[in-house]
Write a structure and sequence with these properties.
Keywords: Disulfide bond, Glycoprotein, Signal. The protein is mainly alpha-helical and 155 residues long. It contains 6 helices and no strands.
């Protein structure tokens, strides 16, 4: 499912580009507002992809549709960039904590043994235990920001 999600956005970007609905140089044509419904060119590309089915390796199909032969999560990041920007701004405005507090030595040994440096994300940076202590539950926008940060940081 993970690979399918990345491929979905990669193909979506290619179809939008073919339909003339996406132009990275034109702020009036962002990826998240693309609608390639009834686009003959996007339809031709999609038809060729469907005809191939599983008869050829997926990398060949991807290259034929997008001109790219490797998975590239940049389309996913491009699609969600407005949400990411809004969350960053909203979290700064409301002083939401993005991340979690570290409450002691739980897992400290495993972190040190693995040689990991755990950084905070968003508003602060540093090693684990550098986050300010916050009482109460995370707000909705902070939780959404955390989930988006975790999902996108794996790319």
């Amino acid at each position: 499912n993970f690979v399918a999600g990345v491929l979905q956005f990669q193909l979506y970007r290619a179809l939008c580009q073919a339909a003339g609905q996406r132009n990275p140089e034109d702020p009036r044509k962002p990826l998240h507002k693309c609608d390639f419904y009834r686009s003959p060119e996007a339809g031709r590309i999609l038809g060729r992809l469907m005809e191939r089915g599983s008869s050829v390796p997926w990398q060949d199909v991807l290259f034929e549709a997008t001109g790219e032969s490797r998975l590239d999560p940049s389309a996913l990041r491009e699609y969600f960039r407005p949400l990411e920007d809004w969350l960053r701004t909203e979290n700064l405005r409301t002083n939401e904590l993005v991340g979690w507090t570290y409450d002691g030595d739980y897992c400290k040994r495993s972190i040190e043994t693995a040689g990991l440096e755990v950084y905070g994300s968003g508003l602060y940076q540093g090693y684990y235990n550098s986050a300010p202590r916050v009482s109460g539950a995370l707000g909705n926008s902070a939780l959404l920001g955390l989930l988006l940060t975790l999902a996108l940081s794996s790319f």
